[in-house]
Amino acid sequence: MNETMNETMQNVSFTEMAHGTAEEYAFLQRHEQEYVRALPERLIAALEQLNTSLSGYLVTRLEHSLQSATRAHEAGESEEFVVAALLHDIGDVLAPLSHSEMAAAILRPYVSDRTHWIIKHHGLFQMYYYAHHLGGDRNARDEYRDHPWYQDCITFCENYDQNCFDPDYNSKPLTFFKPMIDRVFAKPLTDIW
């Protein structure tokens, strides 16, 4: 298939991946790259959905996320870390029982191993503040006591998560963080193609 045919291709012709041609996969790769570039807009939309998710707190999940990111920003954390703080609970809507892993999976190609690990494990570490009230083990996080980022995850939960439910806190708006999201998600840290 030549370049002209590739430009006019609307869809691939295969019904099984094993039967796709190099030209068809090049066509699909261009579509996927465009889709990946639009990820920041989809993340903003997903964050906006947190405004109507899980109820019962004094603030919405969106406000909780904005407080987390604002606190991280005001503490001088890196832009990557601020964005991770903003997105740390983005999995609440679709993966309420594994939200940490979902948020970490979204961040994985774009952030450092340290930031990924903190977000992936923050749900377990956060249990320190409430598990004992529900008959659970508040020290379950101690299984990672020897991990190099154990204390970093404790610090994240202490400074940018457990204390971010204050209806009187003056959070920065989502629009403040959009350029940061755009920059962090502009290019994966590793080449995935």
Q: How would you sum up this structure, described in words?
A:
The chain is an all-alpha fold and about 190 residues long. The relative contact order is 0.13. It has helices spanning about 5-10, 20-35, 40-50, 60-75, 80-85, 100-105, 115-125, 150-160, 175-185. α7 packs across α8 (about 150-160). The protein has one domain (about 40-185): Hypothetical protein af1432. It is about 50% helix and about 0% strand.
| Alpha-carbon distance between the two ends | 21 Å
CATH topology: Hypothetical protein af1432
Helical content class: 40-55%
- Under the CATH scheme, the architecture is Orthogonal Bundle
Rg over C-alpha atoms, rounded to the nearest angstrom = 20 Å
Question: Mean pLDDT across all residues, rounded?
Answer: 92
Let me know the number of strands. Answer: 0
Report the principal-axis shape.
globular
Supply the helix-strand structural class.
Answer: mainly alpha
Outline the biggest β-sheet: none
Which runs of at least 5 residues are low in confidence (pLDDT < 50)? none
